[in-house]
Amino acid sequence: MIEYDPYMPEIKEDPLPIYARMREECPIYPLERWGGWALTRFQDIWDFCSHGDSLSSANGNQGPTLLEGRPSALQTLAGMDGEAHRRLRKALFPHFGPSAARRLADPMRTWARECIEAHLESGRIDAVRELGQQIAVRVSCTIGGVPVSDCDLLLDLVHRFFAREEGVEGMVEEGRNAVLGLWDYLETAARERRASGREYGDALDTLTQFRDQDGQPLSDERIARHMLLLVVGATETFPKVFATALLRLEQHPDQRRDLCADPSLIPTALMEALRFDTPTQWLGRTVIRDFALGEHRFEAGQPVILLFPSANRDAAEFDQPDRFDIHRNPPRILTFGQGDHRCLGNHMAQMEGRILLEEVLGRFPEYTVLRDETVHPPTEFVQGYSHFPIAFQA
Ligand code: HEM
User: Fold this and answer.
1) Number of domains within the chain
2) Residues 6+ positions from 353 with CB-CB distance below 8 Å
3) Atom 21 in ligand 1: residue holding the nearest Cα
4) Is 193 a domain residue?
5) Is 345 in the pocket of ligand 1 (CB under 6 A)?
6) Range 311-322 average pLDDT
7) Which atom of ligand 1 is nearest to the CA of 285?
8) CA distance 60 to 229
9) Which of 14, 122, 348, 376 has the most Cβ atoms closer than 10 angstroms to its Cβ?
């Protein structure tokens, strides 16, 4: 049988060939080391996510804590279950939904233009560091209610959060220190907001005013934990998708021409980029009640991981899935997860992507990727480029 372990070097480098064989040979793959399963097919993952009441995120949704069955120390929205999760998610939704994304469209465009203007003279810009992450972190600061002027400090902590070391499974010491730094920063922000007695209508207001189902407020410490997800979840994922979108368009000049000729195709092109180069390799759940998916029985206590990039290349769902095609416009993809915890920031991410593609293709449609200078660090978690310089003539 095909060999798979989420931490094996081949998976950190180039997982798609292994995922393809798993879908074919063993789509519900036994993770013997942890007594759990890895799901690889689109429909299986979709159906699995519809069993939300039999699943828990209390051991987190990723990394060794989930696989080893230990309660997650992060304690974010993504680690909550049931009514407590539904209630908090509903309270936060107005800061993330389609109208919130529309409200941030103009600031996003202004930030994108400022970033691009700053690099016009040099004729090159790093699409991840100097563009995608700059917009993503500013969006997080604005939603979260922390000063945009702190964005470099936050970006630095996010980079450390995702640092990986050969031979270490999951987060390393540097990442744990970054978590402490982020908690500290965000807890101070919550405390100062409460002390100020002022309201700004942002997510920090929502969190400081929130009452759980027993009428209890959130502590500043707990608010910091929820805010951490906003900063981390938004800042690492989107820029990687943006970079690979630029790469795929450069590799398919005919599609790049189509997009420049008709920018109304940008939202579907972005969907295709999200499908084709899905950054989040896996997230998962712990089964808390036995249930069956077809012939397969999941048992309480088992960790189950969902290989989203594999699902997005499943030929049972997508015609010629390994072909990049901006005209595809599929009815569903799994890049943002599915079910109760589906990505709260997906409207923001799509708006950021739309605006950045409009600005880049509108100004320098003939950009070239400086391949020799791109960096694609090995990781089991959010895969993609950490540095992605492009050259252009304005
Ligand atoms: C391309 C960019 C993005 C990708 C690929 C992505 C991916 C995901 C995925 C797969 C989940 C599901 C987690 C689970 O099922 O356990 C998720 C949840 C979440 N994402 Fe994103 N995300 C992106 C952008 C963003 C942005 C821009 C934000 C914030 C502005 C954000 C905030 C969140 C939050 C708060 C959750 C937790 C939702 C919950 O547990 O109810 N994400 N994301």
Assistant:
1) 1
2) 238, 241, 242, 245, 270, 273, 274
3) 343
4) yes
5) yes
6) 98
7) 16
8) 12
9) 348
Atom 18 (ligand 1): residue with closest C-alpha?
Answer: 343
Within a domain: 4: no
The answer to whether residue 3 sits within a structural domain is no
User: In the prediction, which pLDDT does 392 show?
Assistant: 95
45 vs 337: CA distance, rounded Å: 9
pLDDT at 334 over 80: yes
Q: From atom 14 of ligand 1, which residue's Cα is the shortest distance away?
A: 341
The best mutation among 226, 343, 347, 381 to test binding of ligand 1, ranked by most ligand atoms within 8 Å of the C-beta, falls on 343
The whole-number pLDDT of residue 93 equals 98
Which atom, in ligand 1's list, is nearest to the CA of 348? 27
Do 61 and 341 meet the contact criterion of CB atoms below 8 Å apart?
A: yes
**7-22 pLDDT, tens per residue?**
999 999 999 999 999 9
Q: What is the pLDDT of residue 250?
A: 98
Kindly state whether residue 358 falls inside one of the protein's structural domains. yes
Domain containing residue 162: CATH number: 1.10.630.10
Q: How far is the CA of 19 from the centre of ligand 1 (A)?
A: 22
Atom of ligand 1 lying closest to residue 278 CA: 5
List, for residues 93-111, the tens digit of each pLDDT value: 999 999 999 999 999 999 9
- Predicted confidence band at 192 (pLDDT cuts at 50, 70, 90)? very high
Q: What is the pLDDT of residue 163?
A: 85
Q: In degrees rounded to 5, what are phi and psi of residue 298?
A: -95, 140
Cα–Cα distance list, 368 to 21, 40, 249, 365, 390 (Å):
33, 34, 10, 9, 5
Identify the domain containing residue 49 by its residue range. Answer: 9-391
- Asked whether residue 75 carries a pLDDT value surpassing 90, the answer given is no
